[in-house]
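Is zinc ion placement plausible here? Inputs below.
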Amino acid sequence: MNENMDEGVCILCGKVRAVQTSWTDTNPGRRFVSCSHECKAGFKWVDPPMCHRSTQIIPGLLRRVNRMRREVEEWKAAEMKMRMLLIGTWVMIVAVGVGKLMF
Ligand SMILES: [Zn+2]
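Reply from A.M.:
I modeled the complex. Tokens:
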């Protein structure tokens, strides 16, 4: 990696370069150094190429993790609705009980 490719300030446009991670199907999790989107100069991989087996397996695992995260969020939302329904039911039961005691 020469000086133009390292992290830091790009000598071409003056913007900060940073190590980023690719999440494409062909390079899942592979790190690279790049400038901004406007300045494509100096793009360089940090990690060596992925083996063929990794490019087959990792994207599927990532999709599975993302699907499971969405499911967890859906379950959390459903749990919150059930809690609110339960609290509402308790409030109604108490209100009816207090009403019967008073009248
Ligand atoms: Zn640049």
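Short version: Residues 1-5 have pLDDT under 50 and may be disordered.
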